[in-house]
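Researcher: Predict the fold of Crp/Fnr family transcriptional regulator.
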Amino acid sequence: MIELLKRVPLFTDLSDEQLDIVASITSRREYHPHTTLFQQGEPGDTFCIVMRGTVKIYTSSRQGLQKTLAVFQAGDSFGELALIDGKPRSATAETLEETVLLTVNSESFHLMMRAHYDIAKQIMIQLCSRLRSTNGHVSELTFLDAPSRVVKNIVRIAQHEGKRQGDKIHIPHAFDPDAMAGLAGVHRTVLEQVIRDLEQQRILSLGHSQYTIDVSKLFQSPYVN
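Model: Structure tokens for Crp/Fnr family transcriptional regulator follow.
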């Protein structure tokens, strides 16, 4: 439990004693694939940490179009904004596979925050970091062209989740085109065109349960020049 909590950005710099306090207010919950954890607009009362599985965070327009904001895996956390400010959820969360979460309810979370300022301070620092990251993502959507956004998001996921062997980075799960199109802010047809180009240049190799990026070929391509 402590090792998992150390991987959560909000708790990375906490001591083992502080992590014991966090662990004491968590509950373990299991979910089937494609389970909606909460919907955009619902009251927020739960903070979630992914133990196993994958969770997609997305928003929906009135026309039913989806925009993927993030895809979370083991060690990631989400739901803290609505938990802290008490406002409705800004997005919908859905499991993409069999998923196990550690959850903290609102009452327990606020009691911990009031009783332990050192923990509360670290959480505030990490929330600021996420806000800065979001601002950077907005800038990318504004100034980068569609293919560059696709490639940058693929590389970002590879850096975060991949395992490097020589010039290649292996990402140990199937490529999710819907999630990637949402993260890059592009239409699915644009994504497919970029993927075909990356495969033709042998920069990207898609497998059934993983995909691979050849870094040496990527840095020789027009995408980074």
